[in-house]
């Protein structure tokens, strides 16, 4: 009987030691992608005839670009439907002259922003330092799907030294 009790005590001690003994473990790092339903998009005219502008360093000429529109149909998985629209431009170049209209001398005025949907605030901002880099031009605060549109004007400072001719550039709008 003593032998049975001693064996039982030994087994109980061993079992309790195993329960508290350090063991091996294996970790798994798991990733999960949560997507947002819907899209955030921007549209702008494919082409724009900006008309005729005069060379004159002391004056600025403006040209209407056409309507730009942002549509935010994102739902689920986001806290807000805020977005920022930006614009940049290439230099305007000519196939027949050696002069360029530099993007750094072109500015952008979004004008009035028409909004619908969940936008609580839409703030337009005219550029003053040119369009060589992405420059925010419309910032919104929104709580639901929304649409905003504006008809921007480009402002050119064309130096007296610019040669007469046809100039072409690309104005790029983006939204994040």
Architecture overview:
By secondary structure, the chain is mainly beta. The protein has a single domain (37-175), classed as Immunoglobulin-like (Sandwich), CATH 2.60.40. The protein is built from one helix and eleven strands. Strands 1, 3, 4, 8, 9 and 11 form a six-stranded antiparallel sheet that branches. It has a three-stranded antiparallel sheet with strand order 2-10-7, with no helix packed on it. β5 (92-93) and β6 (100-101) form a beta hairpin. The longest helix has 19 residues, at 2-20.
Q: Brief overview, please?
A:
The protein has 176 residues and is mainly beta.
What are its keywords?
single chain, 176 residues, mainly beta, Immunoglobulin-like, six-stranded antiparallel beta sheet, elongated
Largest sheet: 6 strands, antiparallel
- From the spread of the alpha carbons, the general shape counts as elongated
Structural class: mainly beta
Proportion of strand residues:
35-45%
Overall mean pLDDT stands at 86
Q: Whole-number radius of gyration? A: 32 Å
Q: Could you say what the CATH architecture is?
A: Sandwich
**Residue runs with pLDDT of under 50 for 5 or more positions:** none
Quaternary structure classification: single chain
- N/C terminus separation: 81 Å
- Please tell me the total number of domains: 1
What CATH calls the topology is Immunoglobulin-like
Q: What is the helix/strand order? A: HEEEEEEEEEEE
Total DSSP helices: 1
**Top-tier CATH class:** Mainly Beta
How many E strands?
A: 11
């Amino acid at each position: 009987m003593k032998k049975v009790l001693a064996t039982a005590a030994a087994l109980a001690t061993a079992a309790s030691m195993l329960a508290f003994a350090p063991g091996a473990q294996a970790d798994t790092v798991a990733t999960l992608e949560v997507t947002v339903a819907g899209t955030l998009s921007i549209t702008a005219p494919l082409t724009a005839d900006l008309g005729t502008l005069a060379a004159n360093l002391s004056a600025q000429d403006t040209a209407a670009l056409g309507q730009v529109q942002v549509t935010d149909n994102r739902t689920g998985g986001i806290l807000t439907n805020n977005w920022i629209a930006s614009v940049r431009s290439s230099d305007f170049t000519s196939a027949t002259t050696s002069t360029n209209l530099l993007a750094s001398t072109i500015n952008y005025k979004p004008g009035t922003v028409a909004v619908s949907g969940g936008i609580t605030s839409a703030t337009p901002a005219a550029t003053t330092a040119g369009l060589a880099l992405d420059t925010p031009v419309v910032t919104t605060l929104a709580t639901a799907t929304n649409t905003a549109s504006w008809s921007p004007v480009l402002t050119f400072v064309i130096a007296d030294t610019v040669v007469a001719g046809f100039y072409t550039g690309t104005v790029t709008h983006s939204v994040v």
